[in-house]
Write a structure and sequence with these properties.
heterodimer; A: Ubiquitin-like (UB roll); PH-domain like; five-stranded mixed sheet; 38% helix; elongated; B: alpha/beta; L-arginine/glycine Amidinotransferase, Chain A; three-stranded mixed sheet; 9 helices; 15 strands; globular; disordered C terminus; dimethylargininase activity (chain B); Dimethylarginine dimethylaminohydrolase 1 (chain B); hydrolase (chain B); amino acid binding (chain B); DDAH-like (chain B)
Chain lengths: 1016, 294
């Protein structure tokens, strides 16, 4: 897959630099060639390099950069192992991408096969040499001295470069191409290296002025925020924050702890300074300047109608504004109608209101500006919507609601009516999965059980956003101190977003310690005239040393500008889904869940009786047993696109939060640990218990026919592949979930958080007689896998699928190149498998499918669907092979549009997916292809603080043997801080303990990390 | 909130209406009963007298309209808060005509009058409980969601929560405000359920005082600057047990008013008047002004 990506990049480069135009057919051929090559290569070199790769992998995970290079080179090989799946995936991807141009497809395929066979070896060698050379020369290495995350990113970049080199080589087939590639690459690289890039940020302040400052490109949100506060001379800053508009024109809070660049996901470095937490009692603020800023925010809120109030209140607030800004009413002066108009006091301001304002203004005579502000706030704070952050949602029946997050809890509105309210203390857990938002409610006096109330948000992004706001508000208003980062909480993986600032209690304390003469500040009513709401000045991005040649950047800029174009698809999410199996079930289950949930409107009161959110996924089993096309179809219906990108472990830490949606793409990172145990009962019949923990939730259910079609195509190949490969098992899961447990204990409330979203780790253990927890796994997980001769079960493979809807997925490291490529839009699957040598045979597969659909070009697809199916697979290994999968999805398919597309918006999602599979030896060649007869199946889902464990127990009759398989899927979600290894080890250990009489046959660790945009 | 609470129970005007003879036969009622109109008028007279003399309100009495048998229950025709009055659209079709006179009276008082014109909306003032800080609107036979929405739209400053009324005619058939932050509520299960909902929906804390009889929970609270908390309640003759509970209120002046005849046609104490605080129109928002006077 990697090669594909690189090819894309190359293409772009060519287009841009050399102006040489590549025909689509050419591209396609190239891609196909690459694919083929990779497969063949993989097979050949697998065994040899496995050992090396393993080592390398370990190193990578350990953040070693240098080790990446070799792995990358070897990746193609690893793919070869999984060749069948990869091919399929690719083909599927191609089909999708090519859908619009069938002709091209046909050509490409034929060419591919022939060429590949011939030139495989040659290409490989070339590619390797290329990659090596490029890596050495590249500046990226130099940078390696930098922080670990940076390193990883850079290394990735290097890898990308290498890939490019490879691709170039591949293209040429003859080797003459190499020279070209090098030429292209070199200039870009050089440019990149220059660091200390400064970006000009524009921050719209509350008084209507703009604050401009330069920050380093890598600066965290905090840095900019502090700069702004410094500029404002604001000390009580904890009530405030910076917002930016995401690619969907949604306002998002800039996370102070994360890099700005990774959040904004665009080159639009425009922010606005806003009140984030409205103090319930502004009179408790220490400084007038704080109150003044709060007033400014509230004036805006009132004027825009965000804070609704009555006529009288409008007038009253306006009169205080007048008093604060202009002092006493002066009867001698003509009525300052001008300024009152400027003040824009109410959404519907009229003469009558102005009269009233003047009338009231007169009564404020003698009031100082600070007093007027205080009075303003005293009245504003009483408004029922003061400090309520509204989020549109629907109940289970599709009735439109508004969810309001405020200091006291969560409010539910229908129209203007409050129909329910959940105070923070009543809420046990806040979570979201995909576009569903759930709150678990503490049982009432008369109730025995907790209940869960679910709402549907517009999309996953908004669900996550709401969840974040809830977490932050709860923390700020209810906790004495911010919750410490959940460290190494078992099975806490994925995004562990937490409120990082000071709580209200803390900031009040801090405020009381402020010891400075109250600063003088200028009230600038006149300034506000200048700013128009929408006419924000264009962003000027100045990368001091940026190269225009860096295509990714420029494209993005263009994209951004394009984002406003009607063509763009708003609100589409790209989910990367790894295992379709689970998803399918999930959808169903979720629906069921929703059904169960009382419709808010109807049952206003009886809200609490909704069933729990995470439904078990029983269908997976069905699929296993009978992989019928029907099931495949189901999968397809789910449109979840996952863009996993492989990242170094180190990178994971930093990247987890970067999920901010790219214009049209969403990235989900999930970590899932799947432990499969197969144990044989002592009974005459052979009983196999596979403990597999697929907890992963359903894909998004935005199904569109078009997408469905595409998926089908992809699916078919998958299944075929699975049939072929007996031992290959790949499970992928994609979920966006996060949980937050706002446990308020006494004064200090420690919420427990569980999130699944950003990372996926799956571990599958197959047929392992013995497991040693002490054995080091890629992530330094100690797991030893011993083959059990007895194991009957074979694992199916579930190939990961990624569908990008109008979105592009990339690896953070490769963002730049990928970005270009994506823009150009050619389907290019990239595979970057890494192999780690194991004492036993290890198989690693990384499949990256890039499918790009040009939205415009493919009307069928709506331009939204991208399918990338990586299929990481496993093969029996005593030691864990590491598969690094990178997926890149590009939305545009045609070369013809390259240039055009480049300027269009290309949503880019970076994800890193790592799949490690440990499998015990297979007894017989039985693949899942032999379903046997399903006797019983049950699914149990349990949730702990940080984990969701789904247990599937199936009993099957296979050839007279009854086999019990327990599959446990443990999904751990969290940000970087989690010790995944630890978690994994724990999970396996627990699984073993729970089922002592069974053997673990497979452990699959699937790790997905969302990569933030890499600036370079 | 402080200012709102301080103003709670302050009134300057009251609108009442005479009892038509048709009340006896034609007024709506939940259970058949014989109403003595003469006795009812006597009670009503006393009721007005209390408003006028004890509470010191300026009482506007609208003439009875024989074609509107229920017209004495003026509360249902309008919801007044601050200087804004919402003319309702009563749920009972026979009562729609009652709003006309009410509207004129409110306009005469210079109120900001808003009419509920949506034909899909119904709202009886008896379903509206204003606590001083927010509204609760009972969804009953007489009041629907749309009516509540319109009310919320008119009184934008306040949260408006809906409460299902499972029993009784109106929300205020079993509860009322007994003072700032104090809800009087009947002990019946539906009443208690409604109270729970209200408590859950509210960001504010309310004390509750539970009286054995639902109807006894309907009282009129008035806060007089010179006399403090005053509570107009039903007589001991009607609800002796409930009175005992009310007597626990400290620093309250309890005033009994007989309402026996009107309760036969589902009329409670609050039903018979619309209380208005003209002075509060804007001053509600203005906290002690003295601090910045020169």
């Amino acid at each position: 897959m990697t090669t594909e990506v690189s090819s894309e990049t190359e293409v772009k480069e060519k287009a841009e630099e050399s102006a040489a135009q590549l025909d689509q057919p050419e591209k396609a051929t190239e891609e196909t060639q690459e694919e083929v090559i990779t497969e063949g290569e993989e097979k050949e070199k697998e065994e040899k390099e496995k050992e090396k790769e393993e080592k390398e992998k370990e190193g990578k995970e350990g953040k070693g950069i240098s080790k990446f290079l070799p792995t990358w080179l070897k990746k193609p090989k690893s793919q070869a192992q999984e060749a069948p799946p990869s091919e399929e995936a690719i083909s599927a991807g191609q089909q999708e991408g090519e859908g619009p141009v069938p002709e091209v497809n046909g050509h490409t395929e034929e060419v591919e096969e022939k060429e590949t066979v011939k030139s495989e070896q040659v290409k490989e060698t070339e590619a390797e040499s290329h990659s090596n050379a490029s890596a050495d020369t590249e500046p990226a290495k130099e940078e390696s001295a930098e922080k670990s995350p940076e390193r990883s990113q850079e290394t990735k970049e290097e890898q990308v470069e290498e890939k490019e080199g490879k691709e170039g080589g591949l293209r040429g087939g003859g080797g003459g191409v190499e020279g070209q590639t090098s030429i292209f690459q070199s200039p870009l690289r050089l440019v990149r290296k220059a660091k200390m890039k400064l970006v000009v940020c524009q921050v719209a302040l509350l008084d209507g002025t703009d604050f401009t400052c330069e920050v380093e490109k890598r600066a965290k949100g905090q840095y900019l925020f502090f700069k702004v506060c410094e500029h404002l001379n604001l000390l009580e800053k904890d009530y405030f924050g910076l917002t930016y508009k995401d690619n969907h024109e949604q306002k998002c809070w800039l996370d102070p702890m994360k890099e700005i660049k990774r959040q904004i996901r665009s080159n639009n470095w425009q922010f606005s300074f806003n009140v984030k937490f409205y103090p319930p009692d502004p009179s408790l603020l220490s400084e007038d300047i704080t109150r003044y800023l709060l007033c400014l925010q509230l004036r805006e809120d009132v004027a825009t109608g965000r804070l609704p109030c009555s006529f009288v209140t409008h007038a009253l607030l306006g009169s205080y504004t007048l008093q604060a800004e202009f002092g006493d009413y002066d009867p001698d002066q003509p009525r300052p109608l001008d300024y009152i108009n400027q003040l824009n006091i109410a959404p519907s301001q009229n003469r009558e209101m102005e009269e009233k304002i003047f009338e009231l203004h007169k009564s404020h005579r003698g009031m100082t500006p600070a007093q007027a502000d205080t009075q303003f706030l005293e009245n504003a704070k009483k408004l029922s919507m003061y400090g309520v952050d509204l989020h549109p949602a629907k109940d289970s029946e599709g009735v439109d609601l508004m969810l309001g997050v405020c200091a006291n809890g969560l409010l539910v509105y229908k129209d203007r009516l409050r129909i329910n309210r959940f105070a923070w203390p009543k809420i046990l857990k806040i979570s979201y999965k995909r576009n569903n938002f759930y709150i678990k409610i503490r049982p009432g006096e008369t109730e025995q059980f907790e209940s869960t109330v679910g709402f549907k948000l517009q999309n996953h992004r908004s669900a996550k956003k709401l969840w974040k706001v809830c977490v932050e508000n709860h923390s700020f208003y209810r906790l004495n101190a911010p919750e410490p980062p959940t460290k190494a909480r078992f099975l806490t993986l994925g995004s562990k977003f937490r409120y990082s600032g000071r709580t209200q209690a803390q900031t009040r304390l801090a405020s009381s310690l402020i010891d400075r003469p109250s600063p003088t500040f200028e009230r600038t009513s006149s300034k506000r005239i200048s700013r128009s709401v929408d006419g924000a000045p264009m962003i000027s991005i100045t990368d001091v040393e940026r190269d225009t040649a860096e295509n990714g950047r420029e494209h993005r800029l263009d994209l951004h500008s394009d984002s406003k174009s009607p063509l763009r698809v708003h609100g589409d999410n790209i989910y990367v889904r790894h295992s379709n199996l689970m998803l399918e079930d999930h959808d169903k289950t979720q629906d069921e869940v929703l059904k169960h949930q009382a419709s808010v409107s109807q049952l206003k009161r009886s809200f609490m009786e909704a069933p729990p959110a995470s439904p078990p996924q029983s269908n997976q089993w069905e699929k296993r047993l009978t992989s019928s096309p029907a099931t495949a179809v189901r999968f397809q219906q789910q449109q979840v696109i996952n863009a996993p990108s492989a990242e170094a472990a180190a990178a994971d830490c930093t990247s987890s939060d970067t999920k901010e949606p790219t214009k049209t793409a969403d990235v989900e990172i999930e970590e899932t640990i799947v432990v499969q145990e197969v144990s044989k009962a002592t009974q005459p019949a052979l009983v196999t218990v596979a403990v597999d923990s697929p907890a992963i939730p359903p894909a998004k259910q935005e199904t569109r026919e078009q997408e469905v079609k595409v998926q089908e195509e992809a699916v078919v190949p998958k299944e075929a592949a699975t049939a072929k490969q007996e031992s290959v098992s790949s499970e992928s899961e994609s979920e966006d979930e996060a949980e937050y447990h706002p446990n308020v204990s006494a004064s200090t409330h420690m919420p427990e958080v569980k999130e699944e979203e950003e990372e996926e780790d799956k571990v599958e253990e197959d047929k392992m007689a013995d497991e040693n927890m002490s054995a080091p796994v890629v992530a330094s997980l100690p797991v030893e896998i011993t083959k059990a001769a007895e194991d009957v079960c074979k694992k199916e493979e579930e190939s990961k699928r990624e569908e990008g809807q109008g979105g592009v997925k990339r690896n953070a490291e490769k963002e730049m190149e990928v970005g270009r490529e994506s823009e150009e839009s050619t389907e290019e699957p990239m595979m970057t498998p890494e192999e780690v040598p194991n004492g036993v045979a290890l198989a690693e597969d990384a499949v990256i499918g890039l499918v790009g659909h040009a939205e415009k070009q493919e009307p069928k697809m709506n331009g939204e669907t991208l399918l990338v199916e990586p299929r990481p697979q496993v093969i029996c290994c005593s030691e864990p092979p590491v598969v690094k999968t990178e997926m890149v999805t590009i939305s545009d398919t045609f070369a013809a549009q390259k240039t055009e597309i480049a300027t269009k918006e290309v949503p880019i999602v970076h994800t890193e997916t790592k799949t490690i599979t440990y499998e015990a030896a297979q007894l017989d060649g039985n693949g899942d292809g032999e379903p046997g007869v399903l006797m019983t199946a049950q699914t149990i889902t349990s949730e702990s603080l940080c984990t969701t464990t789904t247990t599937h127990i199936t009993k099957t009759l296979k050839g007279g043997l009854s086999e019990t398989r327990i599959e446990k899927r443990i999904v751990i979600t969290g940000d970087c801080d989690i010790d995944h290894d630890q978690a994994l080890a724990q999970a396996i250990k627990e699984a073993k303990e729970q089922h002592p009489d069974m053997s673990v046959t497979r452990v699959v660790v699937h790790k997905e990390t969302e990569l933030a945009e890499e600036e370079d | 909130m402080a200012s709102r609470i301080a103003d709670f129970g302050r009134y300057t005007h009251a609108i009442v209406r005479g009892i038509p003879a048709s009340l006896a036969k034609e007024a709506l009622r939940s259970c058949p009963s014989e109403v003595d109109v003469v006795q009812a008028r006597r009670e009503h007279e006393k009721y007005q007298e209390i408003l006028r003399t004890t509470f010191g309100l300026e009482v506007v009495e609208l003439p009875a309209d024989e074609s509107l048998p229920d017209c004495v229950f003026v509360e249902d025709a309008a919801v007044v808060c601050g200087d804004t009055a919402l003319i309702t659209r009563p749920g009972a079709e026979s009562r729609r005509g009652e709003t006309k006179a009410m509207k004129e009276a409110l306009e005469a008082l210079n109120m900001n009058v808003v009419e509920m014109t949506d034909e899909n909306a119904t709202l009886d003032g008896g379903d509206v409980l204003f606590t001083g800080q927010e509204f609760f609107v009972g969804l009953s036979k007489r009041t629907n969601q749309r009516g509540a929405e319109i009310l919320a739209d008119v009184f934008k400053d306040y949260a408006v929560s809906t409460v299902p009324v499972q029993q009784g005619l109106h929300l205020k058939s079993f509860c009322s405000m007994g003072g700032p932050g104090l809800i009087l509520v009947g002990s019946s299960e539906p009443a208690q359920k409604a109270l729970k909902i209200m408590q859950q929906m509210s960001d504010h804390r309310y004390d509750k005082l539970v009286v054995p009889d639902d109807l006894a929970a309907n009282c009129i609270y008035v806060n007089l600057p010179d006399k403090g908390h005053m509570l107009l309640h039903s007589t001991a003759e009607m609800f002796p047990e409930s009175l005992k509970v009310l007597e626990q209120l400290k620093d309250y002046t309890l005033i009994a008013a007989s309402n026996k005849e009107k309760t036969k046609v589902d009329g409670a104490l609050t039903c018979c008047s619309v209380l208005i605080n003209k002075k509060a129109n804007i001053s509600r928002f203005i906290t002690p002004c003295t601090m910045w006077t020169r």
